[in-house]
Amino acid sequence: MPNASLLLEIRDLHVGFRIFEGHLRVLAGVTLWVAEGERVGLVGETGCGKTTTVKSVLRVLPIPPAIVTSGEILYRGRDVLRMHRRALHVLRREELTAIFQDPLQSLNPVFTVGSQLRDIVRDSMRTPEGRVLSRREIEARCIQALEETGMPDPERIMSNYPIQLSGGMRQRVCIAEALSTTARLLLADEPTTNLDVTIQDQILRKLDRLVDQKGSSVLMITHSMGVVRDLTQRIYIMYAGSIVETGPTRQLLASPKHPYTQGLMASVPRLTGRGVSEGIPGRIPNYLEPPPGCRFHPRCPHRMPECSVEAPPMSDVGADQRAACYLYRRSPS
Amino acid sequence: MRIPRLGATDNVAVINGYPVITADPATASDWYDTETMYNLYSPLVYPAPEGGVRAHLATSWEPVGGDFTRWRFVLRQGVKFHSGNELTAEDVAFSMTRFIAMGRGNSGPLGKVTAAVVDRYTVDFVLDKPSAIFPDLLVLFFPVEKAVVLANVKAGNYGEFGDYGEDWLTTHDAGTGPYRMTGHIPGQRLDAVRFVDYFEGWSNAGWGPDEVPIEQLVFIMETDYTTLMTLLKSGGLDLEINGGWTLPQLGEIKKDSTLAFSSVWAQNVTVWMNSKVPPTDDEHFRKAILYAFDYEGIVGPWMQFGNGETGILLPNMPGYVAIDPQPRKQNLERARQELALSKYAKDLKNVKVSFHFCGGLGFEEEVGLQLQADMAQLGVTVEVTGPPWPQYSAECSSPETTPNMTIFLFGPQSAPTHDYYTYAMFAPKGLGWIFEAHWFFDDPEIIRILDATRAEPDSAKRLALYEQVQPLIASHALAFYPYQKPTLFARQAYIVGPQETIVFIGPSENMHMWRINMKAKEAMGR
Amino acid sequence: MAKYIGLRLLQSVFVLFGLSLLIFFIARVVPGDPARQALGLLASQEQVERVREQMHLNDSFPVQYYYWLRSLLHGDLGVSSYTRRSVASDLAQYIPATLELILFATLISFVVGQVTGVLAGYFRNSWFDGVSRLVSYLGIATPSFVVAILLLFVFSQVLKLAPGIGRIPIMMQPPPVRTGFMMVDGLLAGRLDVTVTALKHLLLPAFSLAVIHIAQEGRITRTSIVETMQKDYITLHKVHGIRTSRILFKYLLRPSIIPTVTVMGLDFAFLMSNAFLVETVYMWPGFSRYAMTAMLNKDLNAIVAVVLVIGITFALVNLIVDIIIMFLDPTVRLRQGGA
Amino acid sequence: MRESTKADLLAAWRQRRRNLAHGWYKYSRNPLSVLGLVILVLVLFVAIFAPYIAPYPGHAKAYTNFRDASQAPSAQHFFGTDRIGRDIFSRTLFGYRFSLMIGAVVLGLGVAPGVILGLIAGYRRGTWVEVVIMRVTDVFLAVPPLVLALAITAMLTPNLINQMMAIALVWWPWYSRLVFSLASSLRNEYFVKEAELTGASQFHILFREILPNCFAPIMTKMTLDMGLVILIESTLSFVGLGVQPPKPALGTMVAEGAKRLPAEWWSTIFPALAIVIVILAFNLIGDGLRDVFAVEDV
Asked: What residue ranges do the domains of chain D occupy?
């Protein structure tokens, strides 16, 4: 039964893509949730289906070729997948917001930053009395949004075209766009991956402070452990279209239980210089004929016969931490 | 809801014709120019229904000095110009000098003419070479008012006369005709109103009680017949004088009680056969074509509209002689005999006959295709091509470049009509170009008779000469005549006319000869 | 920007110079004897010879061009052998008539074309997309004069309405010509009835001309809309809650319209020389019909003047299109050296 | 050495076969595109075997029968007869031959040079290269196809190929203008910048990077132009420059028939429909090809 207090709950989501070679079964039963005001991380290697998950929540998957075979995406208990277009529009305007990975593609090249920001504020912001904002109020709101992201000289930026801004500044504009309106849940799909490290750190800390001020909850999608360690309370580890482990961030990173997570942690280069990590042997599976049962079993050092029969259920591995692996079969959740 | 009547109660006639090229009598040359001339101006002598000419602005004329190089004309007195001034010999002399000096339009056939004023109402014309039929040529010479023209002269290359008022005369008129021009947009529209003081007067003799003179004329120039049919049906068009209707449209007009036809002059569909280029240089081969063509096949559906047999002259012209083949039917047997006699009898297969028609004219193409199919039965291939008019007419400038067969539509547009269809088309000093694309001048007897027709002042004797020369020309099979194409003037039923049927382009479109039944128009009211 | 426009205008002068040389040569090569055309059927050979002399037709090609260029510089385009009037006064009379018609046609094809293009692109593979696709193929396949005749037939015989033939009804007194645009002249002369009737008379011919271009421009917009839809920024516009209509006709249309604007410009200039068939059906005294008659009757001075006018139209239209594209696509403008 | 080249060839051939199969999959995903292909094959079949299919093959050659001219569609004459009594259905089948030929020749000769010149001019926008190419384009844009056709028929023999070349000569500027505006926008795209940075050759940038992205508008214009080209033949025939009688051509038949509207509607409507079918086929194929080459992110 849907848990009302949860903001977002994804239940056993299956998403595939029909292409020439056949049917790509990307998401094979993703289940995760984000509570009110909580900051959750979704970590996984490239190509494990993180972006597909986000796009499914925002319902911007290009259908065809994508098809949602089964599962629900509940936002405050209402299934986004079956929402009427009108309700979806209201959901996007007042509740959801997002930041995408590539700042170069995230801004309309033929319009000024200002005109795009103004339209967002005009269409999705209402004054407490429900009145549409006046031109002056919209302008002020835009300038404020830009300033909050630490953007220097926001007035000039407003009249610039995206081509005139650097990658970092563009991403700040994207953040301004995302957080300029009341955003209950922010879906950040690898917001800083395309930026160099110094800018990355500034932007993440600014993003974190802004999210705190607004009290919005975040689903942070990334492939870097460093990003999730400081910014999220709970994380999900995703491998080949399904969640393999979840739990409080620091606790899970300190003592990963699932073999894949352990391999993942081992392959993170240590500053302390204990040699280059071995990484995980083998490659992520081909979604055309994904390995039966637990999709990690071909690369799993602790492989057992039942691993290749049926996908392992989530089992408790102590203190709010759970992993989908037969090693811990004794205590199903 | 009926189509709302356009100007149901106005006494106006909207007339459609070919685009007016120019409204200046000295440069007017094409059909519609001539037709407008007869409304705005008056010629010295007027074409008579039975052929020849009759008095008009000139009451009498005779050669002076016996060698037909000097002609004296006595003018009618009291004739008023549109400006109200009286027409005098001074105006006529000035007009002839202007006509010859500008040297365009219809002045060609006159040669070099100098005019001399004898007294207020008498003028002499001195020709550079004797011509017995000079008076007949004056049906296309229209006197203009000297004072008005000289008052509106602009810069030009005629010395002291500047541009001889040519620019001014394109949008004004200085004539004596039954209608006065009120506006002219070249290639688009010409407006005119009735000239009450017209010298012939507006008597109601010969007209019905409610048939009154037309007060206002609007000449428009549309070439698309779907549009014209819409205009005709919506009452927007009163009289159409090009006659370019398709067969189904003619049927439609015939059925519609509010519309009617007037058939006035016919056009002679003529296919010249080039006697200087093989294979049509062989007389028997030409005769074979004459008999091979299926006349009935092509005319069949048009028979009801008068597309009958024709010859060198037109059947409705006095002095017409029916020429071979008689009866005008396809005779493949006779055609094969002629082919056998021709020098190409043996290798008919690789004989190539070229038939050119003017690009875009459907009825000409049909004649070509009919001939192509008929000759195919005799094993002779005919190539039918339709180059655009400039190229098509340029081809006929010399025997070598003229195709074997070229088709033309000759309306009775030049005066005198008999001379136009005989001397101008078969004499060595004739009009040449597209009018003599058979290039055959080798029969001295024909040339002798044709020269005689131009030296014979008496029109009856001249007629006898024309009758004598026609069979002679036909014997050489220089052309074959598929059919005559009567020009059907479609009109609203309340437009009545013409009072006289004159077989010549111009007088039949003189709106003085037409009346409008206003009661019938209001009754129709639609 | 001003510098850019100045440069382009200078280049256009060279274009027109090149064009005049090319068309001058072509006009001379086209078969037919212009002197004979000018004099009419009954002119004697001697008269034809004299006129050939007057028109310098017997001189060599460079000499003829010299005479023509010299008179052009004096603002004299020569006399049309068809209407016997100075070509300049012909053009002054005919150009506004055709301009008024094709401006109206381009307006129709822009509005209808873009709306269908955007909707067909946005709702890709929907029923609307399918229907608009088939209708546009029909539009492209039917020549404008068949459309013109069918419309005429429907309005006159079937609906029994008096279809507007000609710029204004025959019996209506035309207002004094100031701009040559009937609707404008009507307003200037304070005669509302003229302006209204002129508008009614514009509808059928303008729509007949617009049909092919609605189809073409609509299809091109639809194609680029389908491509632009896949871009991230469009998804983000949706996610950030911008109104769908604003996304459709602002954020989606502007980047997608660039190829269409080019084709629209070309179509406009194309109509200048190709509206003659529709003008014939609707008794429209236009420049296109004048151009056609000039070409058919080898009216030398008119042919050269006509093609120069078309050349100027293309040059101007292409310049305007390039400027519009610079404003539509700032990346082009910024790289071009700044507004 | 020989062993490996053979293996490579085999691999390359199999790869091409798979690409082809992949292309066909993308193409056939939309049933309309397949329909387009079927129609085109049918039209080609009909054009080639017209003499055997047409009920009255003789009517495409020298034949007149004024007695039963202008008859409405009936059992004997599916599309009725024209003003000269020839069976319109048979002439339409033969008419396809000429219409397809004129389309192929004009688009074949006209599109390629226009696209190439447009690419070069667009990519090198702001340099003298653009100025020269685009201004020459403006010159040729202004010359009405009719005058050029008239002039060419005077200079060369007025056969059909020359006329079609004349039209192709005035057709390329349209494409150079279209591609110019596209290329001048695309040249600022990042993938072009990256290609330049990595030292890709001019040829590569123009034809591997920019051209594929212009492919969609070009393909749309080209398939739409197919209709205009077939119809331009009717303008030529309007002045006697098109196909010489008695050979049939769809454009001429539509133009001739139009004069007899609305009474004899069949003489123009059926040839016009025949043109619609050809254009429908070309455009559906055009849309299909665009799906094959369209950039798709899965």
From this structure: 48-283
